[in-house]
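Each record in this resource describes a single protein on a pair of labelled lines. With that in mind, the following record should read easily:

===
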Amino acid sequence: MAPSTAARIAGLALGGLTLFLHAPAQARSENEQMMLLEPSERIEQRCNARAMGEVGRTNKGMKPDELVAYAYRDPVVKGWRIKAPGAAVRSGNIWYHLSYECETEHDGLDVKTFSYKLGAAIPTSEWSGHYLVGQ
């Protein structure tokens, strides 16, 4: 596993733990929780959510429930933009290749621009090598 990928997995996992540990008795709003993340993680989370929503809205019968932005290539974050050329999205226990480009507002909360390309289904024989799991 490449160090940048290992660091990304650990950072995202710890980011979720941080949100849990610092949450007051009453739940924080989604935006308040997002603001606790590092900007690059916040951008990736928002854009991953947009990608899943767009794929579901524009591809009849698809209901994405998981997305791995770094499945085949690490995403590149520059400023408030992210390019994820090697992403994968899961729908109905089938993983598909996905690439997307996304730009958020300067707080990383609202998506300004988004485009994507959905690719072919990924054979199950490739899943374990790319952080992809079944339902």
In short: Residues 38-130 form a domain with the Nuclear Transport Factor 2; Chain: A, fold (CATH 3.10.450.630). Helices lie at 3-22, 30-35, 39-58, 124-127.
